[in-house]
Amino acid sequence: MQFLYSLLFLLALANAAPTSNPRLGVEQDDDDDDTPMEYTVLLNPDQPTPPEILSVLADLELTPESENVYEIYNNSAFRGFSVNANKVHRTKLAAMDSVGVLEKTVELTLAVEQRGGAPWGLERITTGSNGGVVRGLQSTYQFDDGKLGGGADIYIVDTGVYTEHTNFGGRATPGWPSSGATDEDGHGTHVAGIAASNTYGVASKANIIGVRSLAGGSGTSSTVIGGLNYAVQRHDQKKKDGTLVGSVISMSLSTPYGQRSSTFTQAVNAAVKAGVHVVVAAGNDGQNACGVSPAEAGGSQGPAIAVGSIGFNNTVSDFSNTGPCVDVYAPGEQIISTYINGPQATAYLSGTSMAAPYVTGIVAYEMARDPKLAQDPAAMKAWIKNNALKGVVGGSVLRGDSLLLVNNGVTVGPAMAAARQQLAAAAITA
């Protein structure tokens, strides 16, 4: 099943009628249609004897080399595969205790809006003030650690990354798939630039690894999970080699509203449990972020960091999802960043897709500065929320939303106390 896209990826969970005794996470197949359909399978980690991918495939009379087996997931966080399954395959899989999650491959979309703009966002995440100008490179980025994310690994799970862009300073590499992770769409390159480019990025010394899960803006949910699989495997290997500073996955993608994906969300949760930080966009539906995946894994509901969007006036963007699944807000309107039209190309885009990588960059920045935070996603999430500015963001949001403006830790301490109080007062009276 192909993905439509629009600036923030959206993953759709197919509805299935349950049987009288359905197992958690397993879609029941009640129709007689023998047409092969792509399914994602995650093995059950709670079995007394961990199931083997090869044995499950063998029960289906398949191997990893079979033409209808698309992806193999095998890492410390989750294990499974995606397969073009006929009726017999689906029936067998649904009956296996070794299968924890069985779900139809789902559609994703990128929620992108293109508008003119400038990198005012870098100043906003350091001061909280809505000073400066929307257009032009006239804002000031303040930071208190010269490492600027040096050595930290940022995995851009997106449309790929144009690694030849000069603003990446040679720090961007193609990661997955090995046959080529270049960006033919532009979205992934723009996201990467916000997180870590020299001029427009937060962590301007971090490593950028392109993970092309949505080639040219389209793909399948199995390829997104395949991208997560690659990131966790590489994280595990660097940890084993003793070369790991820290890993953060940036996902500016989401399911269509109301169509959540348990396989996607469980893979995200498992990656965090394995020690990989995960930052996700809240979604561009103007509704409850808990109604989409993977944003449902954020906020008070899960371990990921979910990010909503604000405009230049520190008001929640009309398109941004809100609610208890949102952790923090970041600039997401009229954002300039790297693009694919040439080695110095830029573009202006808007969306929660643009807000999320600001937080990704802050996570990378902190991983390089604090080794303990680098290995503890839960502590990092708490740090992000504790250092965020309260009483600064305005706008209408759903109940349970804390309305926090992300901050890189510079706007703290006695020297900034008066300024923060002034910002809070202005937000209340606005």
TrEMBL record:
Source organism (scientific name): Elsinoe australis
Active site: D158 (charge relay system), H187 (charge relay system), S353 (charge relay system)
Chain ranges of the Peptidase S8/S53 domain: 153-390
GO biological process, one term: proteolysis
PROSITE patterns named among the record's database cross-references: SUBTILASE (PS51892), SUBTILASE_ASP (PS00136), SUBTILASE_HIS (PS00137), SUBTILASE_SER (PS00138)
Family classification: Belongs to the peptidase S8 family.
Pfam families: Peptidase_S8
Record bears the keyword Protease: yes
Top-level taxon of origin: Eukaryota
Name of this protein: Peptidase S8/S53 domain-containing protein
UniProt keywords, alphabetically: Hydrolase, Protease, Serine protease, Signal
GO terms assigned for molecular function: serine-type endopeptidase activity
Gene3D superfamilies named in the record: Peptidase S8/S53 domain (3.40.50.200)
Signal peptide: 1-16
